[in-house]
Design brief:
Chain A: One of its GO terms (biological process) is attachment of GPI anchor to protein. Chain A: It comes from Gadus morhua (Atlantic cod). Chain A: Keywords: Endoplasmic reticulum, GPI-anchor biosynthesis, Membrane, Signal, Transmembrane, Transmembrane helix. Chain A: It is found in: Endoplasmic reticulum membrane. The complex is a heterodimer of chains A (426) and B (719). Chain A is mainly alpha-helical and 426 residues long. The longest helix of chain A has 36 residues. The two termini of chain A are 24 Å apart. In chain A, 46% of the residues are buried. About 1% of the residues of chain A have low confidence. By secondary structure, chain B is of the alpha+beta class. The N terminus of chain B is likely disordered. In chain B, the strands form 5 sheets. Chain B has a 12-stranded mixed sheet. In chain B, strand 15 and strand 16 form a beta hairpin. Helix content of chain B is 29%, strand content 23%. The chains are: A mainly alpha (426), B alpha+beta (719).
Amino acid sequence: MAAPLALLLIVAVTIRAALFRTSLANLISERVEVVSPLNAWKRVVEGLALLDLDISPYSGDVFHETPMVIYLFHFLMDYAEITFMLADCLTAVALYLAVKDYNKQVFRKQKFALEADRIPMDCLELIRSPTEMYYIPLKVAMFYLLNPFTIVSCVAKCTCGLNNAVIALFILSTMRGSALLSAIFLALATYQSIYPLTLCVPALLYLLQRLYIPVNVRRSSFWFYTLQYLFMFLGSLLVLICLSFFLLGSWDFLPAVYGFILSVPDLTPNIGLFWYFFAEMFDHFRLFFLCVFQINVFFYTLPLSIKLKEHPVFLIFMQIALIAIFKSYPTVGDLSLYMAFLPVWNHLYRFLRNIFLVSCVLLACSALFPVLWHLWIYAGSANSNFYYAITLLFSVAQVPVCLSPSLLSSRESSSKTALFTHSLLF
Amino acid sequence: MAARRCLGLWFFLITLCVVSTGADVLHTTPVTGTESSAAGTETVVARELPEAPSDPGEHTAAEPTREGEQNDRTRGGEQTLGQPTREEEQEQEKTREGEQTPAQPTREEEEEEEEQEQTRGEEEFTREEEEEELTREEEELTTEEEELTREEEEQTREEEELTTEEEELTTEEEELTREEEEQTREEEEEQQTTAQQEEQTKRWEATELEEEHVHDAAVPPLAGDPPAADPPSPPPSKDDFQEELVIRPLHSGDIYASFQFRTVWDADFMGDQKVSHYRLFPKSLGQVITKFSVRELHISFTQGYWRTMQWGQPYLPSPPGAELWVWFQDTVTDVDGTWKELTNVLSGIFCASLNFIDSTNTVQPSASFKPLGIGNVTDHSFLRYATLPREIVCTENLTPWKKLLPCGSKAGLSVLLKSEKLFHSTFHSQAVHVRPVCQDPQCRTTSMELRQTLNVVFDLHTSGQGKREWSLFKMFSRTLTEACPLASSSKVYVDVTDNPQGEQFELSPATPLLTQAVVLGDRRTYSVYDLTQQASFGSSRSLNMLLRWKAADGYIHYQPSKDRERPHLLEMLLQLPPNSVTEVTVEFERALLKWTEYTPDPNHGFYVGSSVISALVPSVVAMDTNSTLDRPLFSSFFPCKEEASYFMRVYTEPLLVNLPTPDFSMPYNVICLTCTVVAVGYGSLYNLLTRTFQVDEPSPGLAKRIANVIRRFRGVPLL
C-alpha cells in the first residue's frame, strides 16, 4: 500500500513544483477565492518585512497571521515552496493513516454485526467488502492531494495549507488514541484560527469511546477523563499564546488575529457569506448580525454531538465542513480538507438524490468565480451582485455535500436500511 | 469622508539629498504623499553612489542601533563581531566561554605547536608534518576526552583563560593608551583637533607595510609566530608559501572572493639535475613539469560567465569552461606529441576531460599568450593553447586542486573552500599557473612559481528577501580560525575603496590596517586582516568578517495603516547621486468598503494625495543665508541655511484609484438572500438533528387483513 501512496505523493509534488515554476503561480496567489486577508502569502512577506524594520507586524492592518507563523517563515523564508508542498503531503499521509485506522474499526464492527446476524437482508448491499475498504484510505489521500482546490491553495502559498496539516495531524493522533498529542494539535489548530475549537467535543467523544468510558454525567470516570483532556487542551493553548507573547513582547497579536477573525473588518470578496452581507449591512444591525453569524458556526456543536455521539469521526467531518462553509474568511483550501473525507462514506452516496446536480453546481461556480470577478473588477460590465450570486450558490451547494451522508432520502431506500445505516455504518 | 478614512491614506515623506560634485547637502522636511489601500510593498531602486566626499557625521548616528539589530539577528552559529568596547568584549568573552566547543585547540596549545615548529629544522619537515598530524589527532582525541570530562575541567580552564586574557587586556590597554598618546601628538602636529574614535582606530598602512611592523611590535610578540614576510621580500627559505584572500563587494551587491595561493621554489626545473625532494611544491605537478619540460603552464576551470558590465574587471580573467596553455622548453622536439601526453596526464590530475584536447581544438597563437614568467621566448612553435568551453566544473575538479595546497583543506584560508557553498554561486573559476620567476631584482637566479587561484562571485539573491548582508560564514559556511602554519604570509584583504566613509557598507570586525595597491590601473584601498597575528581573530578565536550593505537611503519611517483609523505614512531620507533614477513603488490591493463609507459618486474613484519630495538642491550662485535682510517677498519664503544650496519641494500628481463598489440599491435583498442560505444550512442540520428512524411495516392489504381476522378467531398463527 505504500507504493501507490508514494506514487501519489510524487505526482502531487510534481504538479505543484511545475505550477510554482509557471506564471500561473502569481496569478493564483492574487485570486480572492484562494487567499483571504487572513492567510495570503503576500501579507506574510509584508509582516516579515515589518518585523525586519523593527515595526510590530500587527501595528498595521496588513498582517493577521499568528506570531508562530511569522517566526516559522522567518527561518523557512527561502524554503517556502517546499514547506507548503511538505504540509500538503503531511496532511495527505496523516489522513491516509487516520482513515486506515478508522476503517479497521468499521470493519471489525461490521464483522461483529454479521456474526450476530443483526444486519437486515435488504441492507446487505451496504456491507463493504475488504477490497473496497482497502482502497478508501488511498482515495482519501488522492482526494486531498489531487483536488484542484488544494493545488491552487498550495501554489498560492496560502497558509491554510498549514492549518489543514495541523488538523489532519490532530485527527490522526485522535484516531491513534493519543490524548496528549491530540490536545496539542487541537490547541495549535485553535491557536491558528479559533474555529477548530469545536473539534474538541468529537475528539473527546472518540477518545472516550475508545476507552469504553460511557458518556454519562453521573460517572466519575467520564468527568475525570473529560477534565483531563480539557486541561491538556487549554494548557497547551495557554502555552502557545504565552509563547507568542514572549516572541513578540506584546499582546498586539490578540486583537489583530482573533479580533480580526471575529469582527470581520476586512470586506474583501471571498467565497464565504460574510463579505457582501456586512458590506450591505445597516450600521446599527451590524453587531447583532455579526454575533448571529459567528455563533452560527459554534452553535451546531452541542446538538450534533448529542445526536451523533456514537459516530465521532463523522462528527469531526461535519464540524470541519460547517467551519469551512460558515467561517468568516473561507478559502478553497478549507473546502479541500473536508472534501477529502467524502470517500470514507461513499457507500452511502447511492441514496443521495441530487449528488449530480450538486457537483455540477460546485464545478460551475468554481469556473464562474474568475469570470465574474473579471467582469466586475476589470471589464466593468457586471456589478458586485454577479459575484455575490455565485458565492451564494457555492455555499448552498456545499450544504448537501457535507450533510449528504446523513440526509438519506427514505424514498429510495427502505426505512430499515436507513435505520441500519444510521446506527451502524458511519 | 468615511470612505477616505477607510481607504487609509498614504503619506510619503521623501526627503532627498542631491549630491553634486563637491556639495553634500541634506535636509528633512515633512510633506504629504501618495496613497492606496491595503498592502504595501515598497521597492527602492537607486543606482550606485559615486565617490563623493561627504560628511561622516551623518552615518555615525545610525550605527549603534544597527549594531544592536545585528547582534539580535545573528543566528545559527554565525558570530557577529561588532565593534564593542573593550569592557563589552570582555563580558562577551566571559559569556561565550561557556558555549565554546572544545574543537579548537586553545591558544596556549597553538602557541606551543608553533614554537615546536620554529625550533625544528627544515630537513625534518616531513617527519614534523607527520608528527603534527599525530599531535593533532591526539589533540582531537584529547578534546573528545575533554568533552567527556569537560564539566570538571571547564571551571579551571575558564579561570585560567580569564586570567590570561585579563593580562593581555591590560597590556593591550597600555599599548592603546601609548598609541593614543602618539596619535594625539601627531594630531597636534597636524593641527587636527577633531578626534573621532573610529578614525583613531584606523591607521594607514603604507604600501611597503611599514606600519604593519609597527603594529606587530605593538602587539606582544606571540611565541612561535612566523614573521610576516612581505610579498616582494626574498623568501628566507628555499621555498615559500603565501596565501591570500581578496574580497571585493561588487556594485551589484554581489560579493567577489578571490583566493590566491603562491608557492615559490628555488629549484631549477629547467636544468639537468633531477628534482626529487619536494616540500611545499606539489610533487604531482613538479613531476609533470619535469617530465614534459614545461616552461609555463596555465590551466583554468570556470563555471559561469564573468559579467564585466555589472561586476567590473576580475583580478584574474578566465574563459567559461576549461582553458589550458603551455609553453614548452626549447629542448622539446616533438611538441605535439608532448602536448598530447601532457593533456592526458593533466586530465588525470585534475579529474577533468582535458584528454579531449587534440589537434581539432589546439592552436598556436603567434601574437598573444606571450610567456608570463621570465624568459624571452619568441618561437611560438613551443606554445599550445586549447579551450574546452563545454567543461563543467564541479567538486571532482576542486578536490585535486585543493590537494596541491601544502595545507590541503585542513588549515588556513583553504578551510573556506567547501564545495557545497563554492558551487552555489554565480561565478566560479579555479586556476593553476606555473611559471619561472626571478628570485631577486637582478634576476640572477630563477625559481618556479606556482599560483593557485580561485575566484567566486556569490549571488546576492540566493539569500532570499534581497537581504544584503554577507559574512564569511554565510558565504563559505566556515569561519577562519588560523593561518596555514606553513605559510609565510596569510592575509585577507577587503576592498573598501568604494566605501571611504562607510556609507555603502559596514565591515566588522573593523581592522586598523589599511593598505593601498594599484590594480587594473586603479588605486584601491583594502582593509587587511593578517591571519598570522593572533590579534586578528579577536576574543572569539575565529574570524568571521561581516559585511552589511547599507540601504541606499539613510532613513525609513513607515507607519502601516489601520483600516478606518489611520493612514499609511512612509518617509524616506534618500541621498541621490547625480543623473540617477529612484523609483518608489507601492503595491496595493483593492478593498471593498461598507456601503455607507462610499462617497456619493463612488464610481468616480478615490483620490490618493500627492507624495512630496523635499530637497536641497545645489545652487549655481551663492544663496543669501541672512533672512533678516530686506529681500523681495517671493525669494524669502523658505529660510536658507547654507550658501551652496536652496530648498525645493516637489509635489507629485494625485492618484485616482477606482475601487469596486457594491450594489447600493439592494441591502435588503442581500440581507434576505444571505440569511436564506444560512437558513438552508440551519434547516438541513435541524432536519438531521430531529429526524428519527422507525421500522414501519407496510400495512397489509384488505384480503390479508380479513384473513388475519379469521385466523385470529380460529386460533392459528397470523399470516
